[in-house]
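One example copied in:
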Amino acid sequence: MIYSPFQKFLNIIKPGNNDHTRPLLKEESICELYNQAIQDPAPIVYFHQDLELYERIVMKVRDANLNNVTRTASYIDFFNKHPEIHWSFLAHMVSRNAGYHMTDIRNNLISHVLSKKEQNAFFSFLELCNAAIFQDAYPQLLLYEHWKRTGHPSFHLLKKFNVSMFMKSIWNDFLTTGNKQVLTIGLIMNEQHMIQKRILTGMKKPIGVDEWLFLLQDRLEFTSILFPYGKQSPFSLAGLSVSHFEQVKRRILLGKRLYGILFHHSVFPTAYSFAIHHCHSGSRSDYWPHIYSKENKKNRLYSPTLCSVWDNMPSFTLSSSDWFTDQNIEVMAPLMTVKVPDRFSMTKKWKALTSFLVNLKRD
């Protein structure tokens, strides 16, 4: 039997026993998307109205990209107006967790084992990844909003925003088919490949980041992605633990699984209710105030707000290189399937971990 490149790829990343895998796109559809993306583009002419739109979006992105709190708020504001863009809500909830990880660095436990230099290095790395994804993705969302409002597609401006050619074919497909899942997984793929190209392999990470990522992920479990849900406090927690952050295929698979969890019928309604009724501050007390506190109290775990422990970072410049250049068609394989984990409750696990830490603090 002869296996296609897609089948070989899928054999490599077979899900665990607790995943439901549903088909999404057939190979011929993926080949069509790939061929559209690799076509030599015609010379782009930017007219006066294009440049005006570009400048307006640049200003909106700059204003919203101040810190993790402003980015996270921008994602949910966009989803409130355009609920068909699932990725925006997923980005909001994942960005909340990025904020928690940033403030965890300043909590009583981690701040005692990390030097100030190491804390700053780890925060800078997390902040850069969070900001780079926003800088790449938010212009795409605003171009879609412009199209929806005016009926005039302006996705040729993606190139001017240094967005991968891959996303032009994904957005064209969405405008034609309305397939929310293809768009969401396409955005997951794009953002993870982008940070892989421009940050994880394209520049030198701060000293110690690799070691502390390993410690926090594989030893202390501090990099779980948690989605609060349920009708009342204390909220239940859905999500997954993060490991092997350095592997782009693992992060894409994680993103697909998190998407399946967040939009699961038993999670989405109350997770969305939580998001719109609890402004993100970066403190874990946003979802579990009976365990965490923004102040350093004796019977609570200290989880400060982001703005109380970190200043805004200066603007940054990354490579404009396109991750999709010279990729072969196997890179499109994640679009073949949707992942929905059977088991995703993190409530008991997080209760056990936080109970241990509270008792440790009392002792």
